[in-house]
Amino acid sequence: MNFATPRTVRRVPGLPLLPELTLELAADGVGLFDATGGYRSDTPPPFWSFVWPGGVALARHLLDNPALVAGRTVLDLGAGSGLVGIAAARAGAATVTAADTDPAALAAARRNAALNGVTLSTSTTPVPAEVVVAGDVFYSAPVARQVLAFLRTTTAVVLVGDPGRGYFPDHLFERLAVYDVPVRHSLEDTERMSATVWCRRATSSS
């Protein structure tokens, strides 16, 4: 089943907390695993077709605080839909690369960037950058280990949006801001979540 079809994806102008952005996202009645045949399927779930609270919070923070990325090279790690990278580009980043292991996510990130009048480079692996942004990437132990392994290799400023996922190492980060984010009940089993934007501590070894 091709998830990116008119029946399952719709263009959403004015996202929660992000009225200035537009994305192609899963239609209201579509669940995360509807296109994969179930949780245990070998087909990766289309994380890119939803907005996640950590990403929304981080995108809002970048748009409200453009000095964090303006004129700098940015890597959107685990980019998914490209939301955070798009926000960085709109905030004046010199260049933005969206990195994700799922080619479908990278294709979605390019489409969404075009919808918002910005350009993203894409890569299946992380690339060097002055600022690394990561929205809601600490959702499982294996992914958290991969993210932290990469962060140990970079001296970049690291900004993370996270809604309290169990694998986020908050002791390595400093809190910058907290946002109350509307979410899909079908994804999070609630209507709203508190999501925090963090910056890696300067003395952290990850």
Brief digest:
By secondary structure, the protein is an alpha/beta fold. It is built from five helices and nine strands.
Give the CA-based shape: globular
The share of residues in extended strands comes to 25-35%
Q: How would you classify the helix and strand content by structural class?
A: alpha/beta
Q: What are the secondary-structure elements, in order, as H or E?
A: EEHEHEHEEHEEHE
Distance between the termini: 39 Å
Name the CATH architecture.
Answer: 3-Layer(aba) Sandwich
Give the CATH superfamily: Vaccinia Virus protein VP39
Number of helices: 5
Overall structural domain count = 1
Name the strands of the widest sheet in spatial order: 5-4-3-6-7-9-8
Largest sheet: 7 strands, mixed
Task: Report the uncertain regions.
Answer: 1-7, 35-41
Radius of gyration: 16 Å
> Roughly how much helix do the residues carry, as a percent range?
10-25%
How is the CATH topology named?
Answer: Rossmann fold
Give an overview in words:
With 206 residues, the chain is of the alpha/beta class. It has a single domain, classed as Rossmann fold, CATH 3.40.50.150. It has 5 helices and 9 strands, in the order E-E-H-E-H-E-H-E-E-H-E-E-H-E. It has a 7-stranded mixed beta sheet, with helices on one face. Helix 1 runs parallel beside helix 2. The longest helix has 13 residues. It is globular. The N terminus is likely disordered.
